[in-house]
Amino acid sequence: MNRICAERPRILVVDDEEPILFSLHDYLTAQGYQVDCARDIREATALCLATNYLAVIADLRLSGTGSMEGLESLQGVKERSPATATILLTAYGSPAVDREARRRKVDVILSKPISLSTLARVLSDLPKRQEPPDQ
After folding, report:
1. pLDDT(126) > 50
2. How far is CA 2 from CA 7, 22, 83, 127, in A?
3. Structure letter (DSSP) for residue 132
4. Which of 2, 27, 78, 128 has a C-alpha 20 to 30 A away from that of 56?
5. Phi, psi values for residue 54, rounded to 5°
6. Domain contains 135
7. Would residue 1 count as lying in a domain?
8. What is the pLDDT of residues 40-88, one digit of tens each?
9. Taking 60 as the threshold, does the pLDDT of residue 121 lie above it?
10. Domain range for 56
């Protein structure tokens, strides 16, 4: 097995609420992922420029009511790294948010509160979905 395959998949979690960052970090690390955390769009962008991620998980609202910075962050990820899966978490879901997320090519939209086991299931499906077709 080559070194890249032996490495644990890397995930970035972007949320402005530290308790959520800590709980997702601890849970996903226990599930076998390498987890980086960012509290805002600036931190997330810097990490994404320096690291390749299997997935980026971002909260919709990073700086208060009405913001959609998480969605903007995920759009930037897709523009720089189309193979990286993008997952939007939101407690403010609506048909308009869903449409905008799809327009920006977000892969998965999950409503808060979300069970950690559901998130783990979504992440475990990603490598299968992203494997190249048999040749």
Report:
1. yes
2. 9, 31, 20, 17
3. P
4. 2
5. -65, -40
6. no
7. no
8. 989 999 999 999 999 999 999 887 666 788 999 999 999 999 999 999 9
9. yes
10. 8-123
| Reported pTM | 0.87
First-to-final CA distance of the chain: 20
Tally of structural domains, the chain: 1
Cβ partners under 8 Å of residue 87, min gap 6:
55, 56, 57, 58, 74, 106, 107, 108, 109, 110, 119, 122
- Say which CATH number the domain at 79 has: 3.40.50.2300
Q: Are 53 and 78 in contact (CB under 8 A)?
A: no
User: Mean pLDDT in the chain?
Assistant: 87
40 contact partners, CB below 8 Å, separation of at least 6: 14, 16, 62, 63, 69
